[in-house]
Design a protein that fits this description.
The protein is of the alpha/beta class. The chain is built from 5 helices and 5 strands. It has helices spanning 3-6, 26-34, 53-58, 99-110, 132-148, and strands at residues 11-16, 41-46, 63-69, 79-82, 113-119. A 5-stranded mixed β-sheet has the order 2-1-3-5-4. β1, α2 and β2 form a beta-alpha-beta unit.
């Protein structure tokens, strides 16, 4: 499964994470990079995506792509596109509630296809910058989204 295969119809990209926690801030940082650069609706949900259900629903998406640092058991900077069935009920991201449960709720509210683009973080510690590897991946993804979802 590739990004170009799932980005259909009205696309909403949701960045999840805490920008004050190093690599955990990857998703919100990517959203900042994408604002005004693609046809997708972009939303910085910070560390609490559940607080942004109304904004996601109001974007009337056909596809929702969550972008978050996730423990993939991989090398730092490796990315994986996941469906709900690929996400353990006990959680995968650095956040408390499982994104699998959030996906269920989001699907019920929007009828959209919901995916997670997870990226393996390195250091997620308070007041640390985004790692060089994730900074590079963020730029690569920005360019890819600009290509796949032109303004």
């Amino acid at each position: 499964m590739e990004l170009q295969d799932i980005l259909r119809g009205r696309v909403t990209i949701v960045g999840v994470g805490n920008t004050m926690m190093g690599d955990d801030g990857f998703g919100p940082g990517l959203i900042d990079d994408l604002k005004g650069k693609t046809s997708a609706e972009v939303l910085n949900a910070g560390p609490t995506p559940e607080n942004h259900i109304k904004a996601i629903r109001n974007s009337k998406p056909d596809t929702v792509l969550m972008v978050d640092a996730a423990d993939l058991g991989a090398n730092i900077g490796d990315m994986k596109l996941l469906r709900k069935k690929d996400i353990p009920l006990y959680g995968l991201s650095t956040h408390n509630a499982s994104l699998a449960l959030f996906f269920d709720f989001l699907k019920a509210e929007t009828k959209a296809e919901v995916y997670l683009l997870g990226i393996q973080p390195g250091k997620c510690a308070m007041n640390t910058p985004l790692s060089d590897i994730l900074t590079k991946r963020r730029e690569e993804l920005k360019l890819l989204f600009e290509e796949l979802l032109p303004k």
